[in-house]
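Q: Entry one of two.
A:
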Amino acid sequence: MTLNHTMVFLTITIASLAINSYKVMAEVTTTTTTTTTITTTSGSNGTNNTVTNTAITLGNPILIKSGKTTTLKSVVVNSSKLLEISYVGNGTVKGSDFIDKGVDLIATKPDGGIYSQGRGNIMVKGSSERASYVFQAIGQYSHDGKLRESGAAFFSTNSTGKMVAVNNLVIIYKGETSRGGNIKTIGWEWK
């Protein structure tokens, strides 16, 4: 009797991102694709193959923003010492220009990595339309002193205008913060 064998092949293609400047980030047209194939073979007198292909394509970035930290302070939350960062910035999401304002809490893990979570608001330039978001990320400080993170942000709004495009939007992103407090973020819609 032949034993059932399951082979799972996971292929992940992630293009590297050069985040040297806001202008460079605006020109990035990277496509990220993940494909999973599962093949099952069984039976003693025959072969039964089941193949499932799932392709996730993130496509071009839909969020590009830059900003600057405005305040840094140490805070204690549930007996843990955290760094609280307030920031402001601007950018583009789904073709709409916005002004950004938010707060980020950063915890340093025992291995030197960081865990970050926060919230923010974006407002369409020249309008009163708003959307809010919450985010979580993990990352680490590199040898050049920059904090590099990967995370997810979750948007919501009551807007019926331009900002309706971000209601219930989930973005996965890469972010970079320099020693001087300059922030660069690029993100893709997760569908």
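Q: Entry two of two.
A:
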Amino acid sequence: MSENFETPADILEDAIKEPETTESMADYAAELEASFKKVREGDILTGTVIGVSETEITLDLKYYTEGIIRLEDYSSNQDVILKETVHVGDEITATVIRPDDGQGHILLSSKEANDTLAWEKLAACLENGTNMTVKIGGVVKAGVIAYVDGIRGFIPASKLSLSYVENLEDWLGKEIEVRAITVDKEKGRLVLSAKDILREKAAEEKKARISNVQVGLVTEGTVETLQPYGAFIDLGNGLSGLVHVSQISEKRIKSPAAVLHVGDKVKVKVINIKDGKLSLSMKALNEIPAEEIEEESYDLPQSDGLTTNLGSLFKNLKL
């Protein structure tokens, strides 16, 4: 009798344990309710891998049944070996193909889910102008192919570089930065461009180089193009500037072509820098030496002449 008697200490211990039991029952009820949530075709679910065979993956979805991903629904790459790629404990996000595969399981496709998520990501990248690094994996007519999260993207040859691309094969295997310029999930069309990024980088580099140039700098360059209004001079290191027709010669000329030819080496002086553009002058270089020479010819000879005239004057003067 005394062995079955429950002491006050036992009653107190049971009372302390009771709330914990009630809480875990509530958690279990919530989990149970979630497990019976209706699953529809097209839903995207995330589960934990609990089994991998050569032909399928089994997922714990915390639902009333398990999820199955067949090999053909796992990846676009049919050469993939599931047992080498997927491991128990991995988490996989997949799209519901059928709520019931005929054997009580939920049939899933991670390939389809990846495509859906990838297109959503690409749409966001297009909207935000996000840069992406891709590896060129193929050459087609008028461009190359690169994949972004499994989505096939096309890069036109005209969007690969700032200059003309002569041989597309040279780009195979290269990693480049690109930006999406067309994202159309319905048509499966993804077009990428590296040119916009390259143009922005070139502008930044040019801006940095120009910041080191000062008005008054004298340098040498090469005439690269002639226009009715002036000549563009290549100064090297990616810099060029314009010599306006009025700054080419002290004499008035009708056209830069009257005194300059493409390829000519010329000395120029930087006379202005505005909005990242260099204004150059050839005439300014001729003016400075001319002034110096004029001062020398004006001071020295006149002094000599004055001394001679005074000597002659005093020599002939009779007192």
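A: Comment on entry two: The first strand starts at residue 44 and ends at 52. The helical segments are 8-35, 71-74, 82-85, 110-128, 195-210, 283-316.
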